[in-house]
Amino acid sequence: MSGDGAPQAGPPESSGRATARGMAWTAVSLTFAKSLSLVSQIALGYLLSVETYAVFALVSTALMFVSGFQNPGVNKALVQEHEQFDEIVGPYTSFALILAIGGYGLLLAIGAGFEGLYGVDQLFWIVATHGLTVPMMAVSLLHVSLLSIQLRFRAISFVDIAKSLTYYPALICLAALGADGYTMAVAFCIACLVELALLRRAAPGIPLSLRISARQFVRIAGRLRWVIASALLFTIAQRGDYFALGLLLDPRELGYYYFGFSLVANVTVMLAVGINRTLLPVFSKIRNDRAELRRQIYQSAGAIAILCGVICIGLVGFSPVLVHAIWGGKWDGCIVVVLAFATSLPLRLMANIGGTMMESDGAWARRLVYLVLDVLLLLSSAALGAWLAGLVGAAVAVGVQRAVSGLVTFEAAIRLIGGGQRRLITFGLRCFGPFLLVLVGLFWLAPDRHLASQSALAAAAETAAALLVYVLLNALFNRDLLKKLVQLVPRGRPTRGGRGAGGS
To answer: Taking the CB of residue 456, how many other CB atoms lie within 10 A of it?
Structure first.
């Protein structure tokens, strides 16, 4: 392929600098997005009922079964095989489009089945409306892959900001107008249309056609079989708990669970998204240099773990008081979910980093094995926790599962690139020891923290003290990682370079 859409070489840029630049731009766009998301969630917490959030959880569950159609991994394959981009982009794009259209048809059948299984009126039509985004998202991901290969993180970030400026105001307006269960579905359709239009303009080199021979389709399906299966399993590993909990919890409990998860995600999802968006192309470019790859994965994982630790300590320390104060007790039932997920999240993010490492190395079969284990453990943990202790049991059990899964997947990725066990253990103690020690202190100071019974002043003082101790411990044991974190902070306006160097 030639012309504007082809990946073009730019000035040489070190992998470390590319990582820092990408994470910085991702942080800017996602901080903006999640700021709007928090504002919208505050408004929606007043405008929508707890039971409506249970509907959102079930819609999310239905969509996860077609994730392999919406995101069959074509975008990741394009990044991982960027050297052959010219030859593969055309047939890969046609393959992704056909699969997405087929996925929408499957989603309609799933929506009809879910309405009968869970007994929720209008669930089929809500799912059908939201499902219109499946083909749009598939096409958008293809354009993002091209921009990622070119390291044009600024362009991706600007599109994300525009999408956020569309989606979150639309959510609030639709909820205020009484859209109820349709609120999220309609708002997301509008936002995806805006995103797709902007991406087509930013990366016009992606051809859109359904023309592909049966032989090519089968050959690509065979080549991407592990990627497609991994995309499906990854989504189930993120949302499969809703499927089990929808059958075991009542609608209010499920609504609390989804709302609590959304609160944590609003604050921390920028880290998870930044990991895959930034580290996948960077790891792919240096995958043949194992020593540099090990250095990059340890530095990136450590810096992300420390940053996530700061955020999650703040959530554990002050979110119970804040949730109670903002919504006047309406959403107090979600506090235990927030605490459980915030406690486990820094360890959980190691699964994202380890999975990205495997994908960049083309180790799809190994990635699939660990995703299967992740899904099985998630479903069994959610079901067992809910069966034993309802909402509280489900939150604690899923939190533990996510932490264990993160450590196991990260360890597997380190072994894949020849990392030693001793260094891995040392890394874990340095990065997670201070975090866990500070959390033990917080719960020791206030064992009833999940009941939101503290005064705001006491909670603020404890949280500030916990954060100070955490920063001091990391200054003592992780000075090199703190320097890495400083590199992720943008300094002024980034230099506008060629497309290959991150220019927009």
So the answer is: 12
